[in-house]
Design goal:
mainly alpha; Amino acid/polyamine transporter I; 18 helices; 80% helix
Length: 411
């Protein structure tokens, strides 16, 4: 049998693990330094109280990531591209401004996280650590430019594995209380600060820029497939595995703080949490945690920059080279670090800002994937649409509650 015959008989689409990748790139956004800050703060202040928030947020994230990927596979277009066709010029520009604001908040969190990690590991000044984080992320983006998406996916997936080891190790050494974990699955709050943290945790988990990006990742990997049925099944597995990993890492962060840092003075900041972990569990676990945080900042800032480029290209049909964009958006993060802004506060507030951007991407995503004119026979089932509407409503209500508490509307 000739090689030509073998080639003709080869399946048109890859099988098994070859499908995996796009969701793991998007999943890095769910374990960025903002997640670290909000999860550690939640565990240190409230113990297991907010475990339910992470479980719910991970489930919500899995649904919306799948819808974004499905939209990209079925239409061969990204969420921003489809919105460009449906918005007038003024609305399109306004939408782009809010999306860029979300991307900026993301970038600040990720650069700040990398800077904190370098300070923990090498005592580097925060502005210098932020600059190094930005420059190394440029090298990671260079992989995408020079070697293509598959190589970029492999690099990011390897980073995700390092992040997982860095934060799960502490839970293995100091296991959480099973009764406490079970109690944390019951939805409840404990005052305004717990609501603020919950909104930040949701914002850090259901990341707007990752939703924009996922439609581009699958489109760029597979192109416009005439019959995407097989790919949709593989995409569900890709998203499921990626979100189980990312969700597990997030929960491990909170459980580590709840088990080892509850009531420790200053442990609700990353620096304080790291010091407490070193004191309680030893320097080895502390190093793993700092390395996980560093890799989290490096990988997630690369993914965030990529997402910003997808948004600009899709909405405005304008393209700025990724490396140039990386340099431009690095400036605000370095400036905030240079003037001495509390880095942990920056991380938590950035995640709250992300949460307010979520409805702007979820509402059109639900509308597009529920529109038979867009999706054809792959339109959402009624149950899927109802679930997606529920996700959007829950996030919006949390944001409104936060505003009410902040401005004293609610006692």
């Amino acid at each position: 049998m000739t090689s030509a015959t073998l080639h003709l008989r080869r399946p048109a689409l890859p099988a098994g693990a070859a499908f995996l990748g796009p969701a793991f790139v998007a999943a890095v956004a769910y374990v960025d330094p903002g997640n670290v800050a909000t999860n550690l703060a939640a565990g240190a202040r409230y113990g297991y109280l907010l475990v339910w928030v992470l479980v719910a947020a991970t489930c919500m994230a899995g649904l919306v990531q799948y819808l974004s990927a499905k939209l990209g596979l079925v239409t061969g277009r990204t969420v921003p591209e489809l919105l460009r066709d449906r918005l007038p010029t003024g609305a399109r520009v306004g939408y782009w401004v809010q999306a860029e604001g979300v991307a900026l908040a993301t970038d600040i969190a990720e650069v700040v996280g990398g800077a904190i990690a370098l300070w923990l590991l090498f005592a580097l000044p925060l502005p210098l650590g932020g600059l190094i984080t930005g420059l190394v992320s440029m090298a990671i983006l260079g992989v995408q430019d020079r070697r293509g998406q598959r190589s970029f996916e492999r690099v990011i997936t390897a980073c995700l594995a390092v992040i997982a080891v860095g934060f799960v190790a502490g839970v293995v050494v100091a296991p959480p209380d099973p009764v406490g974990v079970a109690g944390g699955l019951m939805p409840r709050f404990d005052g305004m600060d717990s609501v603020l943290l919950a909104v930040g945790m949701v914002g850090a988990t259901v990341m707007p820029h990752a939703v924009y990006l996922h439609s581009a990742l699958v489109r760029d990997r597979f192109g416009h497939v005439a019959e995407p049925g097989r790919l949709l099944g593989a995409t569900r597995r890709d998203v499921g595995l990626a979100m189980v990993l990312a969700g597990g890492v997030n929960i491990a962060m909170l459980l580590l703080a709840a088990a080892s840092l509850r009531g420790v003075a200053g442990a609700d900041s990353i620096e304080g949490a790291h010091a407490a972990v070193v004191a309680a569990l030893g320097p080895g676990i502390g190093v793993l945690m700092a390395v996980g945080l560093l890799v989290s900042g490096l990988a997630s800032t690369s993914v965030g920059c990529y997402a910003g480029a997808v948004v600009m290209q899709g909405l405005l049909v304008r393209q700025v080279p990724l490396l140039v964009r990386r340099l431009v958006v690095l400036v605000p993060a370095i400036a905030l670090l240079a003037i001495g802004t509390d880095p942990t506060l920056l991380l938590v507030l950035s995640q709250v800002a992300l949460s307010f951007g979520i409805p702007f991407v979820l509402v059109p995503l639900v509308m597009l994937t529920a529109d038979r004119r867009v999706m054809g026979r792959h339109v959402n089932r009624v149950a899927t649409t109802v679930a997606a509407i529920g996700v959007t409503a829950v996030i919006s209500v949390l944001n409104l509650l936060l505003l009410a508490l902040t401005f004293g509307v609610v006692a």
